[in-house]
Amino acid sequence: MAQQVIGQQSIQLQTPVSILSGASIVGKKEGEGPLGDVFDMVGDDPMFGTNSWEEAESTLQKETAALAIAKAGLEKWQIRMIYAGDLLAQSVASSFGIADFQIPVYGLYGACSTMGEALSLGAMAVAGGYAEHVLSVTSSHFGSAEKEFRFPLSYGNQRPLSATWTVTGSGACVLGESGGNAQIVGLTTGKIVDYGLKDSQNMGACMAPAACDTIYQNFMDFNRMPEDYDRIVTGDLGEVGQRILWDLLMEKGYDIRKQHMDCGLEIYDGKTQDTHSGGSGCGCAASVFASYILPKVEKGEWKRVLFVPTGALLSKVSFNEGKSVPGIAHGVVLESIEKGAE
Question: Is 251 within a domain?
């Protein structure tokens, strides 16, 4: 077991964990973006047939989870456990969404980094022999997030250019011992990094230091350089956070500009969709990962990817008490089967 622990914060899995399937369902705005054609399903109704934003998000997560299980060719009873999370208080979108599955659940909260957390813990469970199949799933919804963290939509508040747009979407992956064309081979668990920033409308700036810390530590622990990855993918930094991340890593001697992409910049067209700095939310990194990044790895177009979802650890209570907005980022190293066979 000790041989799998490397460096200060990382794990190198002696037995890689396969990703058997990825599924994504998003809202209408996300479907109108540059990645609209790659999502499994685009919903035209923001309420998803329910009576509240919270119920809509629960439905969104439930349907995405069920789709991922079906795409893996499995039945619900074959999933040993679920790692699930969302942005709402006490993670109610997850607990109400997947309750009917009657599968053991670990509820997670890492803000927008939660898909990285879910994939990490799921991979450790499978690699450790504690489960043959697990499901990792997260979700977010623009309406429920605005209600939870900022203002009701009817208020019509003005958003600064540094603000990101919470993605209405969900992404889910089934992990297993074998069978997929993409595999998780390593993990770098993130630390809480707090630069003292307090602007909840500029979460990219709040999260960028944590992304820098995790990416840098991944380089150190695995003895790698940026060019050792085909892509280094952050979750929700947007335009503002991306520039800060680049600058912070340049100060440490690493230039990731050729390899870097951000899910929040990929999911929307910033020029035509009025999303300001880009996208965010648990469903941002999750849906882009399941629909766009994972297929690239499965096909061997990208041999090795460092996936680093980023989260801003604030709540309406901490914000109203004048606290800062700490960040966290969890790194997941993916390789294609072809790469793993080298």
Answer: yes
